[in-house]
């Protein structure tokens, strides 16, 4: 779905938010990662413990494939919402979902699996679990000024999903090496499940992706925003504000200074005089996040 010069209407997009789904799932589940994945999978309708049914030897299972991303994404979503809690304002979650789906429709994976939600923390951050489980913090939304800024952050996370950065981080991060030579196929699959899940959660919620992945996601985000009809300068403004603001903002997104310069360069190259028609939709943003316009 593309934007017009001045506005656009959401028609019949399936605006089921991740937060809305997770509100129905117990968020403080104990037990192993498999229990978490099965519980979330049952609620969302995805696979139940996808990695448990990977089959084959430990070496085969260690070569994680795209079809196994969903279980990892579910586990990351549960880990983040267990830590922070979910914003119960379903209208806000629906709005974020609609913006996210609109942006995703202009990505290189427009038909991918995307679920969006808002987590209840004043921290300024956003997270993208494998296979389209995208969460943004309440603090990030409170720090934004218009819809183009929200679209920019979501476009960055959508780019991570489209580039399979979460899956690749687990593959290459050393989390699976210890299980390459496991003797039992069953025990090795269980070990792989825990290692892969722990690795995905560690990367996405604590370490963050590396700078090459961040920079590529930023460049891709600019392309996506222009294709969707948003003003990409909103994304740049948000990054600039975060760069000069609290030190903890976007803590899992390294290289903030370089990111601003890279995004500026990408906008200068792509947002030419011919296509400078992107929208910011400030009034709609303020209305949907429950703020009054200052104009």
Order of helices and strands: HHHHHEEEHHHHHHHH
**Pairing-aware structural class of the strands and helices?**
mainly alpha
The share of residues in extended strands comes to: under 5%
Number of domains: 1
Number of strands: 3
Features:
295 residues; mainly alpha; 3-stranded mixed beta sheet; 13 helices; globular; disordered N terminus
Topology at a glance:
Blueprint: H1 18-22, H2 33-44, H3 58-62, H4 69-84, H5 90-104, E1 115-119, E2 126-129, E3 133-137, H6 138-142, H7 147-162, H8 165-172, H9 185-207, H10 211-228, H11 233-243, H12 256-270, H13 282-289
Parallel strand pairs: 1-3
Antiparallel strand pairs: 2-3
Helix pairs in contact: 2-4, 4-9, 5-7, 7-10, 7-11, 8-9, 10-12, 11-12
Task: Walk me through what this model shows.
- The protein has 13 helices and three strands; from the N terminus they run αααααβββαααααααα.
- A hairpin with a 3-residue loop joins β2 (126-129) and β3.
- The protein starts with 17 loop residues before the first helix and ends in a 6-residue tail after the last helix.
- The protein is 53% helix and 5% strand.
- It has one domain (18-288).
- The radius of gyration is 19 Å and the shape is globular.
- α8 packs across α9 (185-207).
- It has a three-stranded mixed β-sheet with strand order 1-3-2, with helices on both faces.
- The relative contact order is 0.15.
- With 295 residues, the protein is mainly α.
């Amino acid at each position: 779905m593309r934007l017009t010069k001045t506005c656009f209407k959401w028609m019949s997009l399936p605006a089921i938010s991740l937060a809305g789904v997770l509100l129905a799932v117990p968020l403080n589940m104990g037990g192993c990662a498999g229990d978490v994945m099965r519980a979330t999978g049952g609620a969302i309708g995805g696979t139940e413990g996808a990695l448990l049914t990977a089959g084959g030897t430990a070496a085969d299972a260690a070569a994680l494939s795209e079809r196994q991303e969903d279980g990892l994404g579910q586990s990351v979503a549960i880990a983040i919402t267990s830590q922070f809690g979910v914003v119960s304002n379903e209208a806000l979650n629906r709005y974020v979902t609609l913006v996210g789906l609109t942006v995703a429709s202009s990505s290189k994976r427009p038909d991918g699996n995307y679920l969006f939600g808002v987590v209840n923390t004043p921290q300024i951050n956003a997270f993208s679990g494998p296979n389209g489980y995208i969460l943004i913090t309440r603090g990030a939304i409170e720090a934004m000024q218009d819809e183009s800024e929200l679209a920019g952050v979501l476009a960055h996370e959508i780019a991570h999903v489209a580039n399979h950065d979460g899956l690749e981080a687990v593959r290459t991060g050393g989390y699976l090496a210890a299980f390459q030579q496991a003797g039992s196929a069953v025990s090795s699959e269980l070990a792989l499940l825990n290692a892969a899940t722990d690795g995905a959660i560690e990367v996405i919620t604590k370490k963050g992706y590396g700078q090459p992945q961040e920079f590529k996601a930023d460049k891709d985000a600019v392309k996506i925003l222009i294709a969707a009809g948003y003003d990409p300068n909103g994304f740049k403004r948000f990054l600039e504000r975060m760069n000069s603001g609290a030190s903890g903002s976007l803590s899992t997104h390294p290289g903030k200074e370089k990111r601003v310069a890279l995004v500026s360069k990408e906008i200068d190259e792509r947002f030419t005089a011919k296509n400078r028609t992107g929208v910011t939709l400030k009034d709609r943003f303020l209305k949907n996040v429950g703020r009054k316009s200052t104009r």
